[in-house]
Amino acid sequence: MTKLKIGLALGSGSSRGWSHIGVINALAEQGITPDIVCGTSMGALVGASYSAGNLAKLEKWVSVLTKFDTARLFEVNSTFNGFVNTQRLHHLFNELVASNDSLIEDLPKKYASVATDLETGREIWLKKGPLLEAVWSSISLPGLFPAIRKNDKWLVDGGLVNPVPVSVCRAMGADVVIAVNLNGDIVGKRFRKLQKVEKKTVESEAVITNGVMDKFTEMVEGYTASLFSTKKDKDQSPSLFETIASSVNITQDRITKSRMVGDPPDILLSPKLSQIGLLELYRGNEAIAEGEKCVKRMLPDIQRILDVGI
To answer: Which terminus of the chain, N or C, has fewer Cβ atoms within 10 Å?
Structure first.
């Protein structure tokens, strides 16, 4: 009998995307290895790292990431075309995802990322060419990342059109699609109440990092109040960033539900991640652990579906 081709569709969800690491690890423990990996936004990043054989490096980095480390990935610049320190992030991608000269067609697995054409709103599938370029295009969340220029198109986050790329896996030849939806339980949840980031903590951490301070770190206390949320009165209006983040969550949740009606996956994994904010990248251990738990909860269904298909 012909072996089933398993497709893994890794959905968008920003910091919740670290859960994909736990999902991949838990599936591997059961001997389930996908032949096709498709990702949107953070799913594209984790999927690329996995396909390039660097997932263990990425997991090690994620597991020790702190709140201050996360803040250093952002900066305020005069162009206001994004708040991400692209130079620093690119260096990290080279270490944890792939080198600049890595090509998608050279990967041992079939891989694709999803981006959005900013001018037309069309869905763009990136299935060949530079791997890092495909990742950058897919994760370029408007307002945080600058748009990426590719083939005379300006590309932004693929989560705007296809948050969980089940359709891409099918088109690339998957017989069974395992989809990971990171946004299934986030809409309707109250804003979390986290403790404020104390300025003295930020300053002490800055000393530990050999005094690496820039204009952004002087604004950490105030800016991280928007990035990571703070404890506030329930009647206080949400910050600008909280409003944007919640709007993105709602949009992606609605699009995901709509698309899955027409093209449902064979296996749907929905980690419970509503407690993790959009940019709380430093909570990776929680996300990874929940990804593993989600696979374990669904293991009977996973095994049944794969056994039936063989």
So the answer is: N
Out of 35, 157, 253, 266, pick the active-site residue. 157
Distances from the Cα of 52 to the Cα of 4, 10, 13, 262, angstroms: 22, 15, 21, 31
Name the amino acid, one letter, at 32: I
3-state secondary structure of 71: helix
Q: 163 φ, ψ to 5°? A: -65, -30
Entry field: residues in the chain: 310
210 burial via Cβ count (<10 Å: 0-12, 13-18, 19+): exposed
Q: What whole-number distance in Å separates Cα of residue 69 and Cα of residue 308?
A: 46
Q: By three-state DSSP, how is residue 155 classified?
A: strand
pLDDT, position 309: 57
Catalytic site includes residue 41: yes
User: pLDDT value at position 263?
Assistant: 87
Q: Please say if 235 is a catalytic residue.
A: no
* Tally of CB atoms within 10 A around 237: 9
The structure's pTM equals: 0.82
